[in-house]
Amino acid sequence: MSSPFFSVLVGIAPFVPFFVILLFLIMRRQKPCPDCGEPLSPFLSPFKKTWRHWVEGGYICLKCGCDVDSDGRKVPAGTAPRLRSVVTGIVMLTLVGVPAVLLLLFLLHR
Ligand SMILES: [Zn+2]
Fold it and tell me: How much distance in Å is there from the Cα of 35 to the middle of ligand 1?
């Protein structure tokens, strides 16, 4: 009874509670649409996301299509991200991107 499938199952078993808790937290964070009250889906198609969604998060109501920020407030269409969020985004990209580029250069020039 030691098929590869069984081994994989045993290997991922300790992580199952973690994923259940994560999913539970995501579902709990669901906020209602400020316009129509429909629960906002935490999962948004990357093609529907705006620049603001990528930088500071937010939702698009699946029922009425209104744009909602991460705190559950309605956002008028075409609103630019807050400056603080843009700065945070750039800093995060730098913190992740610079070591990645350095590592790549290091590996290429070995
Ligand atoms: Zn709505």
Answer: 5
- 75, β-bridge pairs: 67
CA-to-CA distance for 74 and 33, rounded, in angstroms?
8
More confident residue, 35 or 110: 35
Query: What pTM value is reported for the model?
Result: 0.50
- Enumerate the domain spans of the chain: 1-30, 31-108
| Ligand 1 midpoint to CA 26 (Å) | 19
Q: Per residue in 21-43, pLDDT tens? A: 888 887 777 788 998 988 888 77
Query: How close is the Cα of 69 to the center of ligand 1, in Å?
Result: 13
Strand ranges across the sheet with 67-68: 59-60, 67-68, 74-75
Expressed in angstroms and rounded, the spacing between residue 85 Cα and the centre of ligand 1 is 25
Ligand 1 midpoint to CA 55 (Å): 22
* Six token digits for residue 4: 């590869």
